Automatic annotation (TrEMBL), chain A:
UniProt GO molecular function: transmembrane transporter activity
Transmembrane segments: 21-40, 60-82, 89-109, 115-135, 147-165, 197-215, 236-259, 321-343
UniProt entry tagged with the keyword Membrane: yes
Subcellular location per the Swiss-Prot or TrEMBL entry: Cell membrane
Its membrane topology: Multi-pass membrane protein
GO cellular component: plasma membrane
Upper lineage: Bacteria, Bacillati, Bacillota, Clostridia, Lachnospirales
Protein name as it appears in the record: Putative membrane protein
TrEMBL record, chain B:
InterPro entries assigned to the protein according to its UniProt record, in alphabetical order: ABC_transp_permease
Name the record gives this protein: Putative membrane protein
Subcellular localization(s) per the UniProt record: Cell membrane
Molecular function, one GO term: transmembrane transporter activity
Regions crossing the membrane: 12-34, 46-63, 69-88, 95-117, 154-171, 201-225, 278-296
Bilayer topology annotation: Multi-pass membrane protein
Organism per entry: Herbinix hemicellulosilytica
CDD domains, alphabetized: TM_PBP1_transp_TpRbsC_like (cd06580)
Main location: membrane
Keywords assigned: Cell membrane, Membrane, Transmembrane, Transmembrane helix
One GO term describing the cellular component: plasma membrane
Length: 365, 312
């Protein structure tokens, strides 16, 4: 009888979380709508375009999927690092460096194209690991704030990477700041003609599954989660917490680096980034929306990508700046992360559900 | 090489150090106040950015730069309190709140800039004006020192005064004691009947004032327009300065100066043959190095303390 009660309350909690998320989205849109109505005469048309934009053509819908790929990688990378309770934001730098290294290998490395492609992706992952390892190592060794170090490190990587790019890969004949073209055949193949959707999406799916299995089905992942949720308990249980934290930063960095290379080799034919791509912070955003569950991260990534592409369409159609989307995102995050939001309602409902269950159970007896 | 030395050991270089240091000092003072109250305020980056924009708007459409400064400060306070409301009253994780706020600040400022001036890059089209520079009597007549210290923007002098003000506030007033206890011993604070939440709100409000001033300086002193993401991580550097300065006003200000020197150096070295990217990397790399040195020192002194305790 008691088991039934508990399950129902659990089911209520899941249901409540979904409801809370929907309400958060609704409020975020409502506020953004009010903001938009100040700057455009036809806010309804604008927000309509935001919603339907990605559905107006196959091309646009596939852009959503294209954008979802790097976002998912960023989300997974941040997920693994955050699970060890490390607020390491250097996925940003790892993404940038991963993309750069894979680009350089794609330009210069001789040999069979497919082999070069695989090596470029793995090399990007390793470089990403090294980048994310820096804040982790400094935290473990000397207790430096991993958050501040990683924020600074991203800029160091941006300028250091740009330096390498200028020295090694920059094409002096190109009209804009870009590298030489990648070798033919070194690139992730296109899977839907007339779009840019590339086979990186399969790599992404593989990484989602692997991360989920790693986190919830392996001993290593269990150790990691335990260390993250209570480091003292983990120490008492005889877990080498330093090693666990370090390995989680390395794995997170690896995912970010691979993400950078997949984005570079799938979407571009030359390296042409001159600023940080912003995926490090996007990864954090996705984890809040996905409640830090790797299985939900692609869904969250799809949601965010859909919004952004929709906003782009809105900008072209209605002359409302696409940046409104960052206000929507921010509000959603704030409301989802705010545990006190709707907490009273939840408390009341939980009490009611439990009471009902108890009474129902009592009646049976 | 002599060219390098000439450009570094010139009065112009030291003048630019103070100019570059102004927003860093102001923001790091804000970070000092909040971190003493036990909050790591990454949101100061976004606060600076938003107040830089509102300052420009208020100046252009209102009553000039001084009015702009006032509006910047008010914006800073409101933004900080909003961060506080979400993280403390709505109980969201404070780092996540700040990241969400920064995201909104970067996009939101562009959104409103576009809505008002139809430009996504800068507000150069607006004639928003500049806060005046001050000539300091007496000091301006001293040969070398005068050239370095006089004729700065009025906000730069305010920044220097703020170091002193924050010091007095934190260590010589009851409010300062409360703020410090809110960070170190919140329970002790409640036990004497002082609201812990209220104290933190006040600390955030003060950091908003400082962040607002820093923002106003960026768009109405450093340059005379707002441009997309113009703070470029200065709020994060301020956090690093606070960490390196062990959350003391003087320490943080000195660290901020150090970062300013690195930044000014990166401008001065741009005329040489050294790669500009490596020079641009300098301030951030110096910040990391500084943090490492500080942490190494701290961890070894902690170790000593522990050993001492063990002996006793």
């Amino acid at each position: 009888m008691r088991k039934v009660t508990k399950m129902s309350v659990n089911r209520f909690n899941t249901w409540f979380e979904v409801l809370r998320f929907l309400i958060a989205i609704f409020i975020a849109f409502a506020i953004s709508f009010i903001i938009m109505s100040f700057s455009t005469d036809s806010p309804f048309a604008a927000i309509g375009n935001l919603f339907i934009g990605p559905l107006t053509s196959v091309r646009r819908f596939s852009t959503v999927l294209e954008m979802m790929i790097p976002l998912t990688f960023a989300g997974l990378a941040v997920n693994v690092m955050f699970k060890a309770n490390q607020f390491n934001l250097s996925a940003e730098g790892a993404f940038f460096m991963g993309a750069l290294i894979s680009a350089i290998l794609a330009i210069y490395m001789p040999g069979q194209a497919k082999l070069v492609l695989i090596i470029a992706i793995i090399a990007a992952g390793i470089v990403g690991s090294l980048v994310c390892a820096i804040p982790g190592a400094l935290k473990i060794k000397w207790n430096c704030s991993e958050m501040v170090v990683s924020l600074m490190l991203n800029y160091v990587m941006l300028y250091f990477g740009t330096y390498i790019f200028n020295q090694v890969a920059r094409d002096p004949n190109s009209a804009y700041k870009a590298s030489y073209k990648f070798r033919t055949g070194v690139g992730l193949s296109n899977i839907i003609p007339k779009t840019r959707l590339h086979s990186g999406i399969f790599i992404m799916i593989a990484f989602v599954i692997l991360t989920y299995i790693f986190m919830y089905k392996t001993k290593w992942g269990y150790k990691l989660r335990m260390t993250g949720s209570n480091i003292h308990f983990a120490k008492c249980a005889g877990i080498g917490v330093s090693g666990v934290i370090m390995s989680s930063q390395l794995i997170g960095g690896f995912i970010a680096g691979v993400g950078g290379s997949v984005e570079m080799l799938g979407m571009y034919t030359r390296f042409q980034w001159s600023a940080l791509p912003g995926y490090g912070f996007d990864g954090v955003i996705l984890n809040i929306i996905a409640k830090e569950n790797p299985a939900f991260i692609p869904v969250a990534a799809f949601f965010v990508a859909y919004l952004r592409i929709g906003a782009d369409y809105m900008y072209k159609q209605s002359d409302v700046a696409a940046e409104i989307v960052s206000i929507i995102e921010g509000l959603v995050i704030v409301l989802v992360a705010a545990t006190a939001f709707l907490a009273k309602f939840r408390h009341r409902m939980t009490t009611k559900v439990s009471k009902n269950m108890l009474e129902a159970g009592g009646a049976k007896e | 090489m002599s060219q390098v030395f000439e450009s570094i050991f010139s009065t112009g270089f030291f003048f630019s150090v103070i100019r570059v240091a102004t927003p860093l000092i102001l923001a790091s003072m804000g970070a000092v106040i909040t971190s003493n109250a036990g909050i790591t305020n990454i949101g100061i980056e976004g606060v600076m950015l938003v107040s830089a924009l509102t300052g420009v708007f208020a100046s252009a459409y209102g009553f000039g730069p001084w009015f702009g400064l006032l509006i910047s400060i008010i914006t800073g306070v409101l933004c900080s309190l909003a961060i506080g409301y979400v993280s403390m009253s709505l109980k969201a994780d404070s780092a996540l709140t700040c990241i969400a706020f920064n995201t909104m600040a970067v996009g939101g400022t562009v959104y409103f800039m576009y809505a008002v001036v139809k430009d996504k890059g800068t507000t150069i089209a607006l004639n928003s004006g500049k806060l005046p520079s001050l000539e300091i009597p007496l000091i301006k007549d001293i040969p070398v020192l005068g050239e370095i210290l006089s004729n700065h923007n009025v906000v730069s002098y305010m920044a220097l005064v703020m170091i002193f003000v924050v010091y007095v506030l934190l260590y010589k007033t009851p409010l300062g004691l409360r703020i410090r206890s809110a960070g170190k011993a919140p329970n002790a604070l409640s036990s004497v009947g002082v609201s812990f939440l209220k104290t933190r709100y006040i600390a955030l409000g003060i950091s908003g004032v400082l962040g607002g001033m820093a923002g106003a300086f960026m768009s109405m002193g450093y340059v005379t327009w707002f441009s997309k993401n113009m703070t470029a991580g200065r709020g994060f550097i301020a956090l690093a300065a606070d960490a390196m300065g062990n959350s003391t006003p003087l320490g943080a200000a000195l660290s901020a100066m150090l970062f300013a020197i690195a930044e000014a150096l990166s401008y001065a070295l741009q005329i040489t043959t050294i790669s500009p990217e490596l020079v641009q990397m300098l301030p951030y790399a110096v910040t990391i190095l500084g943090l490492i040195i500080y942490s190494v020192k701290k961890s070894s002194s902690d170790k000593k303390k522990r050993e001492q305790l063990a002996k006793n």
